[in-house]
Amino acid sequence: MVTRTVDLRSDTVTKPTEAMRAAMATAEVEDDVLDFDPTAVRLEAEIAKRMGKEAGLFVPSGTMGNLISVLTHCDVRGSEVILGDNCHIFIYENGGISTIGGVHPRTVKNNSDGTMDLDLIEAAIRDPRGEIVYPTTKLICLENTHANSGGKCLTAEYTDQVGELAKKHDLKLHIDGARIFNASVALGVPVDRLVQAADSVSVCLSKGIGAPIGSVIVGSKSFIAKARRLRKTLGGGMRQVGVITAAALVALQENVGKLESDHKKARLLADGLNQMKGLRVDPVETNIVYIEIEEGLHMSAAKIVKNLEERGILVMEISSSRIRVVLHHQISASDVQYALSCFQNAVKGGQTENGN
Amino acid sequence: MVKRIVDLRSDTVTKPTETMRAAIADAEVGDDVLEHDPTAFQLESEMAKIMGKEAGLFVPSGTMANLISVLVHCECRGSEVILGHNSHIHIYENGGISTIGGVHPRTVHNNDDGTMDIDLIEAAIRDSKEEITFPITRLICLENTHCNHGGRCLSVEYTDRVGEVAKKHGLKLHIDGARIFNASVALGVPVDRLVQAADSVSVCLSKGLGAPVGSVIVGSNSFITKARRLRKTLGGGMRQVGILCAAALVALHENLPKLESDHKKARLLADGLDKIKGLRVDTSSVETNIIYIEIEEFSGTTAAKLCKNLEEYGILLMQTALSRLRVVLHHQISESDVQYALSCFQKAVNGVQNENGN
User: Where is the secretion signal located (chain B) (predicted)?
Assistant: First the structure.
């Protein structure tokens, strides 16, 4: 029996659409290392324009987007970067900024809304008078939306405040904007306004926007020129890369408009799950839903995940009592209903066993 | 008037063919980070099998393939790698093994044929008894074909001997095999036999094989597992990467048989160029698809000038020194393109000679 599969593990699972496949097949290409691939140039220019920055650079992944950005801003030995203790760069990028880039991380506590307290950020900035023992703070990184906090949005006001702080101390500001379009849509703020205070932004095309591969870094012309060189050094200089950037251009056209509906589906799912005894869902702002399994249910996340898998619902186990679900444009409203009924089935076991 | 373009700058300029484009459009894909993209898996397995190694890993570029290979073999702090003074890794990869990977390079002189003398390699291996002041040699790198030395081939006998030196001293051997298939075809040696002595090989798909993007690293299962993790760290973990691997699979099947003809075209062009007064080509050293052209002093022109003149005819090539040009043949250069290029060279050089009253 063919199981219906509803893949809610991440928005990275999105597969290229027919229009993307057609675009890839007919893409105009050139050697992007020897010259400039025209389709890559188009994508980079388009994203830069949307973000209100001077230039852009296509890279194979968000990890490389962030790695290049941090290393380019922190290009002097002995640099330090301030970032959230629960941010993607710090937790899920293999510590590359240090192991590969030699940059020291200084973490500041992430609040549950994805922000860091401004006074704590300021306190973390190294006093130059202590330079004999201190690394030199060069950069502050924000993440919008903030993945580990449940896809929470940083407001334009907050971002601007951090920007001012950075300027005051002669630091740069980088935004890990893997899901920046989700933030822009949820807040109703134009994306260029949202990232105005940032010196650089890394934007994923392979997540909710649905392209098969890649991210774009945006920043000033001089920043991007250095970034291009570092991209080559890391091995991200691809040749006829237009075959991929063509898909990304289609993704931009087709799917930014669908993000609002992803957020609606997430809220629908969250509301439904919250009604189930034994589950508790954190407030949902965009397309990410975190589900807490209450103690009273006496069921582990692993058990629920396995049960769901048998019904074709794929989700991510975060801890023994926490599950994550991510909505994207290839999940239909009917898929959401199906997922809800499967969750209901899965937790019923726990509810009945314990006489609930 | 549409200019006829003959792009001889590199075999990286090859554009995807119709079959590749169709394969890209139909590729079966998955999230290669969360699990394993099926088309990537197919390519990696096939490459590993062809190379006689346990496993493979698709990466965005040859630079990343070499970087990962060196860094995985040299995963301990304080490592040193022995490589040719004129090798691609040392000259054209932004010094990444050091600036990114913290590995120290120990260069040994590359001979004209791309080899390094075995006794010089052995002399460069650090004596670990002196460990207080020495880094620790972990790896030897070879390059086959050798790009800067005119695409010359390292024989299987030479490679085996270097492998023995490596084994004798507890070192690993990595082959930068960007153009390893060119070597295999030119030498008439099956590629797995050619790289038998190596612990890892990096193979380009985007050069003579003509795929739009990428390389594959091959090695043992445990090596590739570490390589996969480092690939993620460097930012080379791509999602639905099957679209690129599908094109690479087509490239492997379609264009491997065309390499011999690229070599023939190179020999044809080399012979013709050597006959032009003012140019000199060491035709005996044209073994594969790369030609270096020396501009004789009496010709009255420079590489830069000649390059520019030829560009006006639509012939694109690379200037590598004041009086040196490089030309690379590939499957999208026809025999008629070769003849056209020759006549343009003739015109361009004659033109200068006429200017100078020769």
Answer: none
